[in-house]
Amino acid sequence: MTPPLVAGVELGGTKVFVLRARGTEIVERQLVPTTTPDVTLGAAREILTRWHAEEAFAALGIASFGPLRLDSNAGDFGRMLPTPKPGWSDTDIFGALAGALSCPAAIDTDVNAAALAEARWGAGAQGQEPFDCLCYLTVGTGLGGGFALNGKTLHGAMHPELGHIAIRRAKGDDFPGACPFHGDCIEGLVSGPALARRFGQPGDQIDAEDPRWDHVAHDLAQLVSTILLMTAARQVLIGGGVGMGRADLLDRVRAKVVAQLAGYLPFVTPDTIAAIVRTPALGDQAGPLGAVALALDALAERQGR
């Protein structure tokens, strides 16, 4: 049986990937720069409409940066909630993209979608059974976190907003943070812009031996420890430019997680920590495949499966 043709949109803060896939195999993708909502979504909609006319999609999945309204009963479902990204607050993401196609569609955050893809086809699917609880973090321009829980993404009143958790600061670290809402929440401490402000230069230009990395590792380890204690996630995957760009930082984070938990969680040990806190198995394909996962779920729901 030929797998269904589905479409996906991964909407990021700097770029958008529009793609079509046969089942889980991405067969074509196009890049659109993220500028204003009208220009960006208009370009993505034009690609989707053209492709749909060539061969109709079975479903569409939209994985977008947030914050988003994901309650399907809300009047502003699928819209961007207040965001520091200029011009994007209250943008109708779902309507602009799904309204152009006559097929089932789903929308979720990019990190929730990436967690779903990793749970099904990546790091969480390398054993006999997919993991029941997996967390995906992206550390780059901002810090976002999503969960795949028992085969579904995690929603409630909203979606997870891990980037704005306050953590216990390292002794001697007086960096005030860079978040416009909360100052020294975790995003304000370890995101790309926060690192540039903390160090006075971009993170990729900072020597790995700079002692200030120890504070960054402490902060990330605080977040990971909080996630493990609160959710009992089997894995916390750290992606994004900061997360995947510095293996030395990841090693420091692992050591600090073990030290901070102090043996309280029996499944977190020096022998297991490298498998628990790691980079995404799908690499930079977790986001695009997350959009595919959302599309396939929308199709399955329409078919009553």
UniProtKB/TrEMBL annotation:
GO MF term list: fructokinase activity; metal ion binding
Protein name (database record): fructokinase
Pfam families: ROK
Cofactor section: Mg(2+)
Gene3D superfamilies given in the database record: 3.30.420.40
Keyword rRNA-binding: no
Organism: Sphingobium yanoikuyae ATCC 51230
Key words, A-Z: Magnesium, Metal-binding, Zinc
InterPro entries xrefs: ATPase_NBD (IPR043129), Carb_Metab_Reg_Kinase/Isom (IPR051804), ROK (IPR000600), ROK_cs (IPR049874)
CDD domains: ASKHA_NBD_ROK_BsFRK-like (cd24067)
Keyword Zinc found: yes
Catalytic activity field: D-fructose + ATP = D-fructose 6-phosphate + ADP + H(+)
The EC number(s) this enzyme carries: 2.7.1.4
